Amino acid sequence: MDRISIVGGQRLNGTIPISGAKNAALPLMIASLLTPERLTLKNVPNLADVNLLARILRNHGLDLTIDGKRANPSPHMGETFHLSARDIVDTTAPYELVARMRASFWVLGPILARCGRARVSLPGGCAIGTRPVDLHLMGMKALGADIDIDGGYVVAVAPKGGLRGARIIFPKVSVGATHNVLMAATLAKGETVIENAAREPEIGDVAECLVKMGATIEGIGTSTLRIQGTSRLEGAVHTVLPDRIETGTYAFAVAAAGGDVELSGARKSLLETALSALAQTGTSVAETKGGIRVTRNGGGIEPISIETQPFPGFPTDLQAQLMALMTRADGTSVIRETIFENRFMHVQELARLGADIQLHGDTATIKGVRQLRGAQVMATDLRASVSLVIAGLMAEGQTTINRVYHLDRGFERLEQKLSRCGANIERLVSA
Ligand code: EPZ
Question: Which pTM was predicted?
Fold first, then answer.
């Protein structure tokens, strides 16, 4: 298995191109199942999760061709995908594939809406928490589907004549359930109202794409989505929005290592809360013509306290990165994780580098230390592993990160992007 080696202490200077958002690209690819026509997605990041989802969708009959990055002149523009699901040849999403990536469960809504039935493996738990799917199922039932759990599979059958619009009030904010129900509702009969919908920008991006495909959706960007169903969606061309989590990750990395970096292609409005938290640590954050400029030249890191919240609050997907930065703050900071019950696996790995972190339930108290020292650490999930990269950039000596396949799921060309800005980072490829 590949590892990443970092020798800390180098400042970061230069430009980092921000890729298209993984968490928009995945549901956008899934949305292609809603139409027999061609959906073209531009700025798709080249990531392990995207490639795995492509395999899953091909299993359902999707025809996918990729133009490749070289067809695109802009440095932060990704690949162009042409997706055609003319016929859905298989309405089953098997355990072997769904278990490897939770977002693949979101095929349930589009396949059910288009084919009248779907059989999708339950995704099961994962490293960051139990992550049930009750809200997804509640939404499908409200649209009239009959749901049965059989042998670890959700078997969903639409009523005669197809799904029917409904009013759905989610008791809890869920990104995935909002995506799933939103996509299904576009092909349901009549009006669907989703209340307490997640407002993450990636949902807005998918909704904008669905509108291009012929859907009628009001309230995009708000917690109430109103969808008028239609019997058929068309093809469209859509550009994936920039990745706010990748943006935040590199912004925190610059704050940690010190330096001056422009995050080209980044959009500040997608992560105001995280960037204002970063500014409170003593890092300068400014919008530029081409993106965002992050600067920290000398000076200490001020401690800050936050709790994770659904958008527009501080994102859980940046919690581990902020914690890595706080390990070197001039004082004590407190981070409360309110979204996932077990998203603190990075704590014990950061401790290997000398971080002083106490965990009590959902709250971590981080006492800043004068120095971190390089060590062998293990990546446990996608965002936790990149927090170890940030810590490694600050640590004295060499840090080696094992199990970097987690990083490859969500960060495109990470070593290249950082080393071009002066980081001493390399991938140790296993034979
Ligand atoms: C999405 O996951 C993201 N994944 C996650 O990013 C992100 O951390 C999460 O939203 C929160 O922002 C993608 O977009 C592909 P949720 P999702 O449903 O949709 C509970 C990353 O690193 N819940 O909003 O699975 C759930 O257990 C990934 O890129 C229910 O109780 O998250 C959690 O506590 C990791 N019942 C909370 O809601 C349900 O039916 C929020 O989960 C569904 C969720």
Answer: 0.97
